[in-house]
Write a structure and sequence with these properties.
- The chain is mainly α.
- It has ten helices and no strands.
- The protein has helices spanning about 5-30, 35-45, 50-55, 60-65, 65-80, 85-105, 105-110, 120-140, 155-170, 175-185.
- Helix 5 runs parallel beside helix 8 and helix 6 runs antiparallel to helix 10.
- The longest helix has 27 residues, at about 5-30.
- The protein is elongated and about 60 Å long.
- It starts with a helix and ends in a 28-residue tail after the last helix.
C-alpha cells in the first residue's frame, strides 16, 4: 500500500457520499421520494452496491439527503416554542417551514413522510415535535391570538398546500410569501390587520392550468 492511500480512500468515500446525496435531492425533486434507488445511483455515477453500502435503506437516504433541512426545522420549532410571544413564534414557524419548502423542492414530501420502519429514536423525536407544536398552538389560542378552532394537524394542510404552489411555481418566492400571509391572516383571531406582501409577477399564462375555457 502506498503512503497516503488510506486517506485517499477516505476522501473518495466522502466524495461518493456527497455525490449520492446531491443526486438524491435532484431525483427526489423530479420523481418523488419513492423514485428507484437505482436512479439515484445512476445520477450519482456510482454503483447500486456503493449506494446501499452508504445508505442501506430508503429512509436512511432520504434523511441523509435532507439532513440540513430537518435540522433547520428542529431549530425553528425550538425557537418558536421558546418565544415568549406565542403568536410570533407560531407565525415565524409557519413562515420558516414554508421558506424551507421553497428552497428545496424534494423536501416537502420528505418532511411529511412517515416510514413504517422508522427507528425508535426518530419516531420519538417526531412525537416530541408534535407535542411541542401542540403546546405552542394552545398557548397562542389561550393568548387570544390564534383562532380557537385551529388544530395542530392543520400544519400538514398548510405544508401540502404550499408544497403544491412550490411545485407549480418553482422559485416564485413572491407567490410563496403571499400565500403564507393569506393563510396566517386566516388563522389569526380577532381583527385582520396585517398587510400582504406584493403579488407574484407571474401571469396566468405561466400557470399550469388545463381544461379551462378560453376567452
Amino acid at each position: 500500500m502506498r503512503p497516503g492511500e488510506p486517506d485517499d480512500l477516505r476522501l473518495d468515500a466522502r466524495l461518493n457520499r456527497e455525490r449520492i446525496l446531491v443526486a438524491a435531492r435532484e431525483v427526489f425533486a423530479e420523481r418523488g421520494i419513492d423514485a428507484p434507488m437505482a436512479a439515484v445511483a445512476r445520477r450519482a455515477g456510482v454503483g447500486v452496491a456503493t449506494l446501499y453500502r452508504r445508505f442501506p435503506t430508503r429512509e436512511a437516504l432520504v434523511r441523509g439527503a435532507f439532513a440540513d433541512q430537518m435540522a433547520a426545522c428542529t431549530r425553528v420549532l425550538d425557537e418558536a416554542v421558546d418565544d415568549p410571544d406565542p403568536w410570533r413564534g407560531f407565525r415565524r414557524l409557519v413562515e420558516e417551514l414554508c421558506r424551507l419548502q421553497s428552497e428545496e423542492r424534494g423536501f416537502p414530501e420528505a418532511f411529511l413522510a412517515a416510514f413504517p420502519d422508522e427507528a425508535r429514536e426518530h419516531a420519538q423525536a417526531r412525537a416530541g415535535a408534535e407535542r411541542a407544536f401542540t403546546g405552542l398552538v394552545r398557548r397562542a389560542q389561550a393568548a387570544g391570538a390564534l383562532r380557537p378552532d385551529f388544530h395542530a394537524s392543520d400544519l400538514l394542510v398548510v405544508l401540502v398546500a404550499h408544497g403544491g404552489l412550490v411545485t407549480a411555481l418553482p422559485g416564485d418566492r413572491a407567490a410563496s410569501r403571499r400565500l403564507v400571509a393569506y393563510l396566517l391572516e386566516g388563522f389569526r383571531a380577532g381583527p385582520r390587520r396585517g398587510a400582504l406582501p406584493p403579488p407574484s409577477p407571474a401571469d396566468f399564462g405561466s400557470l399550469p392550468l388545463t381544461g379551462g375555457r378560453s376567452a
